[in-house]
Amino acid sequence: MSATPAGRPDRVAVLCGVGGHLPRHRVGNDELAARLDTDDAWIRTRTGIRFRHLAAPHEATSDLAVAAGRRALANSGTARADAVVVATTTPDRSCPATAPLVAARLGLSGAAAFDIGAVCTGFVYALAAGAGLITSGVADRVLVIGADVYSRIVDPADRQNAVVFGDGAGAVVLRAGHADEPGALGSFDLGSDGDHEDMITVAAGGSRLPADPSRTSHTERHFAMRGKEVYRHALIRMTASARTVLDRSGLTVDDVDRFVPHQANLRILRTVATDLGLPADRCATHVERAGNTGAASIPLALTDDHANRLLRPGHQVLLTAFGGGLTWGSCLLTWPELPPAAAPAHHEQESSP
Fold this sequence. Notes:
The protein is of the alpha/beta class. The chain has one domain (1-353): Peroxisomal Thiolase, Chain A, domain 1, CATH 3.40.47. Helices cover 30% and strands 23% of the residues. It has a five-stranded mixed beta sheet with strand order 1-7-6-4-5, sandwiched between helices. It has a four-stranded mixed beta sheet with strand order 8-13-12-11, with helices on both faces. It is globular. The protein starts with 11 loop residues before the first strand and ends in a 19-residue tail after the last strand. GO terms for molecular function: beta-ketoacyl-acyl-carrier-protein synthase III activity. It catalyses: malonyl-[ACP] + acetyl-CoA + H(+) = 3-oxobutanoyl-[ACP] + CO2 + CoA.
């Protein structure tokens, strides 16, 4: 493959569509406070979250992924894609992967399709995988989706986590293009540290410990996170990864027009922005209205920012995430000219249970 004078391949992945979807049922802090011995002020102070959306009993991760993927494809101007990559911690089944089903429901049967599991960093990993499919010539168009239904794995009585997590899906479409055009993906940084695998985990349900109620506890069958340690690691890893990407690109924080971190909670993303030297008004914050939606959080934030005209063609956009594994990753891209897109959250009235 030939390369540009700067050493970058002449065929790169270009973002050409976005879309997001949140379930209809929206849960406010007061509803949770009534059963979790807490209050709205406590939740807002520690997380910045006001609402989160929860999937209906009949909705699975694939349902949310299909809705977001369909919107992203429509926004891109075509329903065609050669590959579908789904980042999720909550697949419909442990076997098979969710992506082939999503592809089939979108009319993309025959396309390459696979899942990526990197927890909350999943979308950045999936974006890198999609870009690799394009730069290698395997695909010309790739649909990348982040989708999670955390309400299936979080114990609703868990005061620490039930207030933080929500369900949702976000997607982008990538196409083959050139490094100098708007929408081009730039440098990536990806990393992991498996020595801390138990910091964010669902202990039971895999080959190490099957989810047999006779052999496992209620706690082992649900999501667990050591919050204070996660907070410390997230700040260190997200900040360092973002700086690495800037260094590789020959840019500084002054060149960043929009910072879109994983929407873990408001304290983390604002602290990372501050540590990087970025003002608060350059930081995307979708977490207040959706909670932590795992792999869906970055594409949902991108869709929300685009819908609200906070992203403009030519903007340098910095993405960064941290999740279980431990995993982390960052990416830079130049924002393209896109058709208008609907904001992922559009249900104004709070739902009742």
